[in-house]
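Worked example 2:
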Amino acid sequence: MTKRTRIIAVANQKGGVGKTTTVVNLAAALARRRCTVLVVDLDPQANATGGLGLERQQGVSIYPVLLGEAEIADVIQPTAYDNLNIIPSEVDLAGAEIEIARQEDHLSVIRQALAPVRDSGVFDYILLDCPPSLGVVMTASLAAADGVLVPMQAEFLAMEGLGLITNLLEQLRAGANPSLELNGILLTMVNMVATQTKDVIAMVKERFGDRVYETVIPRNVRTSEAPSYGQPVMHYDPTCKGAVAYRAFAKEFIARTPTRFDETVEPVQAGPAAETPPAAMQSAAEPSDGQNADSTQETGAEQ
C-alpha cells in the first residue's frame, strides 16, 4: 500500500461562507476515520487555531518558516484530537502578504515551506485554511496545493465570488501549478426551505456538474456555537445535524481524494527515499486507534 500526501487549499475570497468551519470540521471528521491530518492556518484572524482549542503564540505559525527563521517541524502543534495536528496562525502573519510579495519566486514560497512535511509522508491530508482575499497568500497557497475545495453559501451573490476563484485557478494551471484541480464545491449554511437555495444549487450543479459535492452542510446553531468552545462540532455535539453532515462530507471527500493506493491496482512511480521525519512529524506518522473510524452509513442533513 502506497500513501501520497494530498494538499488541499480550502479557499473562498468571500468571508462568512463557512470556510474555516469546514476546515476544522473536515479535519476532525477525517481524523476520526484514522486519517492523519495537518491543518495550516494561513489566516491572521486565527479562527482555525481557536476552533481547534489552541491559543495564538508569538512565533508559532508558518510566518517564521517563510522568513527562513524556523523549521516547519518546529511549528507543528498537537491538538486534543488523535491524528490531528495544526500549524497555528498569529497576528504577525498579516505581514506575510508583504514578505511573500518581496520574494523573487513568490508563488512557490508556501510550496517550498511545506515540502519537508509533504515529502515525509507523515500526513494523509494537509488542509490549508486560506485568508478570505485574492491576495498573495491565497495565490501562493493555491500554487502549493493539489486541489482547491471551495465552500460557498447557496445564495446568488456567492455565484460571482465562485467565478473569481475559478478564474484564478485557471490562471495558475496555465503557469505556476499545472496540476492544480478543482477538488470540489461544498454548499454550506443551506436552508432547503428557501426557494432561492434550491435555485442556486441547481445553477451550481448545472455549471460544475460532479465537482459539486452531494453532501450539503445545513445552517445549524450547534455548528455555529462550537468554535466558541474551541471544539469541532462532532466533539461539541456529535448528534446535531451539522456534525452528521460533516461526517458524511468527510466520507465523500475521502472517496474523491484518496491518499492510499494498492500498488497492484495503481502502480505509483517511486521517488527517492525520504529522510526520517523530525520528531514533531513522527508523532503523527501512525494513525491512532484512540478514535474509531465511523462505520455507519450517513447522509448530509439539509436543515
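The chain has one domain: 2-256. The beta strands are 2-3, 6-10, 37-41, 77-78, 84-87, 125-129, 147-153, 181-188, 260-261.
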